[in-house]
Amino acid sequence: MGLTACGGAGTSTEAASAPASETATPTPTPAATSEKQYTLAELTTVLGQIKDKQGTKLSVMSSADMSGTMEQTKAIMAQTEVQPAACRDIAMGSLAQPTTGVEATFGVSQDVASGSISSISLSTGLEKGALEKAQQSLDQVSECSTMTVSAPTGSSTVTLTDLAGKKPANALFVYRVDTELASGEKGSVLMSQAVKHDVLVSVIATGGSSEDAAMANLTSLLDQAVELIK
């Protein structure tokens, strides 16, 4: 779940009209528009403008910086089993998606005083089907409310709780992910996603004084990203 990955943009237009004549009025062809494809540099610029709740800029890195770590993680995930099997995609997060042509940049905020950590990713180049999967994830929250994940590093029970009542206005969904390891250790994170144009925005927040505080951190990062992707 922690690896689920996500400059202003404009549109390009072309217009053409029929040659003028004495008997006909030129009829312009409707303008053709297309979504801008964001570059890694542009996404990094966007992330560089985002600040956490304390007004501090995020620590930013790109998928290129993390390529080695991500490949190692994918190798582990390839050996991971999820039950129910139909829930594998939501358990794997972005690791279940094709990565060819995908570029992403990651930002992290850590508040030592409160013990909170928030992260955000901006991903572009995903196939249309991948973006549709992100929008369908809310349905999987109810179908996959409890999962068993078995990996080479051990097994865990993962529980998803839909927090629709607290969903940020710009988000597709928000849910809490509770994980209990076989050793009895427990952890909890909040996760949310949004899609703006062809950019997938993913935010994760954990720790802090309360769930509401973590939600405030998550909402702040997601709203800023959506506002900056124009």
From TrEMBL:
Question: Which portions of the chain have biased composition (kind: Low complexity)?
Answer: 11-35
Note down the stretches annotated as region Disordered.
1-35
Which stretches are tagged as biased composition: Gly residues?
1-10
Report what the protein is called: Uncharacterized protein
